[in-house]
Design brief:
Pfam families: Rhomboid. It comes from Solanum lycopersicum (Tomato). It is a multi-pass membrane protein. The chain is mainly alpha-helical. The chain has 7 helices and 5 strands. The strands form 2 sheets. It has a 3-stranded antiparallel beta sheet with strand order 1-2-3, with no helix packed on it. Strand 2 and strand 3 form a beta hairpin. It is globular. The termini are far apart.
């Protein structure tokens, strides 16, 4: 550079110095909308994305949880508001059960507190594997729990509700997210 070029540039205003010093930086284009900025010898961030396009949130339409909630509410309203007698046939009567009552009893509830607590916790269950697997898990855990209650409880009991389904869905979600590293499982079993 010549002295004339140095004099023609505007004077530099000193900025406060930062405690972190960046030795070198390299900006490379990734695509037309993104730049990737790499900093060498920077111990906090190795890569920084600039001008990242905003991701649109997926449109959450009607999903499996919605239909399960709607079915539970519909059966409750039919049973307790309109008092339709046919709904009582969906309860699981331990003294004379029919095959469909093992499934349908999971959609019936005795009172509003029972329904609202089950629906509140059901809403907290995340839908991770799709609608079909959610429905299948709901029905299988409910029917399995009702079968066990029918085998264990006395014959003068009536079973309704989705509490056992909630425990089953919780167990399934834990098992799905669990790491199946046998060394870690053995370590947990030995050490507690």
């Amino acid at each position: 550079m010549t002295m004339a070029m140095l004099l023609s540039t505007p004077p530099l205003i000193p900025l406060p110095t930062l405690a972190l010093k960046l030795k070198t930086s390299l900006i490379t284009p990734i695509s037309s909308t993104r730049l990737l900025c790499k900093f060498n010898d920077f111990d906090m961030t190795s890569q920084l994305e600039i001008l990242k396009p905003e991701r649109k949130k997926p449109d959450k339409g009607v999903n499996g949880i919605f239909w399960i909630l709607l079915l539970n509410l519909g059966i409750y309203v039919a049973d307790h508001v309109f008092q339709i007698r046919v709904v009582r046939a969906l309860y699981l009567y331990h003294n004379r059960p029919t095959w469909y009552q093992f499934v349908t009893a999971t959609f019936c509830h005795f009172n509003w507190n029972h329904l609202s607590s089950n629906l509140f916790f059901l809403k907290l269950v995340e839908e991770e594997k799709g609608n079909f697997k959610l429905w299948l898990s709901y029905i299988l855990t409910g029917a399995g729990a009702n079968l066990v209650s029918w085998l264990i409880l006395p014959r003068n009991v009536v079973s309704v509700g989705a509490s056992a389904v909630l425990f089953g869905l919780f167990a399934i979600s834990v098992l799905v997210k669990m790491s199946w590293d046998w060394r870690k499982i053995l370590e947990e079993l030995i050490l507690g």
